[in-house]
Amino acid sequence: AYGTSLVLYVLNGLPRSGRITPMMSRTLRAVLIALCLLLPLLSLGADQVTWSASLSSDAKPGGHATVTLTGEPEKGWHFYSLKKQEDGPIETTIGAVAPVKLDGAVIPPAPTKKFDPNFNLTLEYYEGKTTFQVPVLLGPDPSKEKISVNFEACNDHNCAPPKTVEVPLAGGQAEAIVLKGDSDDAPSKGL
Prior knowledge:
Blueprint: H1 2-11, H2 22-42, E1 49-55, E2 64-73, E3 78-80, E4 93-96, E5 101-102, E6 112-116, E7 121-126, E8 130-137, E9 146-151, E10 153-154, E11 163-168, E12 175-177
Antiparallel strand pairs: 1-2, 2-8, 3-7, 3-10, 4-9, 5-8, 6-7, 9-11, 11-12
């Protein structure tokens, strides 16, 4: 009762009688229910997967190179394989940001194949630190060049909206980019 009174005092102030009216009780109940429903959504604003990249030591401007791309989901989160999965989530798509060009097929690690309750399907995904080898043809200044990753991250209860990030080849923070239109358009834009 004291906690309820304190919350009401903060929200509305107690009536002069110091008693909680039925109307105040209904309002508090509605506020608490709304908070309980919204709390799981707060985690969706966070970056569930951290991305980084590094170039092979022999990389030269304008030359062929291999980028080591690493995705590391937060504990309890995963992201999906490069394979399109019928009726499933957005597959991870790795692309080049001009002037960099892909120079062959991306080499992924073997994914985990497991039932995913979000889609009620057995799906391929990655948990924990995951490294891809990405063959590229570099542009004139590799220190300023990037590759892109479009992915969807989920935990056992919900999924974050699909996201595209650009990852600097020379290390540093991956930055989210905003695409015009639907995120499903990302692969067709070379992302």
